[in-house]
Amino acid sequence: MKRFINSEKAPKAIGPYSQAVEANGTLYISGQIPVDVTTGKFVEGGVREQAEQVMKNIGYILEEAGYSFKDVVKSTCLLSDMSGFAVMNEVYGEYYKEDCPARAAFAVKDLPMGALVEIETIAVK
Description:
InterPro entries: RidA, RidA_CS, RutC-like_sf, YjgF/YER057c/UK114
Helix content: 10-25%
Structural class: alpha+beta
Protein name: RidA family protein
GO cellular component, one term: cytosol
Family: Belongs to the RutC family.
Strand content: 25-35%
Distance between the termini: 15 Å
Number of strands: 8
GO molecular function: deaminase activity
């Protein structure tokens, strides 16, 4: 059985996909970009500010689904440029201090809406 998760605190999907889907005790969170729902726009600043907003958006979806960052088992981090990796990694480390999830990080040619950072997440209960 699938359960579709939609948090009002996180940005709405900008295409034909869900914020997150839970199936058999596993939560799959779509890639989150740095949109602040209070403004509907990207947060001001660079990689640090964008990574912080992305992690907040992930947290809102985890919370809506009844999960927490401690339940996260895998992240995929996408960056517009690997020169932002150290800053993104520092922000990411504020959310995962021990028993960190598995992770992959890639630089990609472009991200939606010109984002500098996008992170997708998988959590398990």
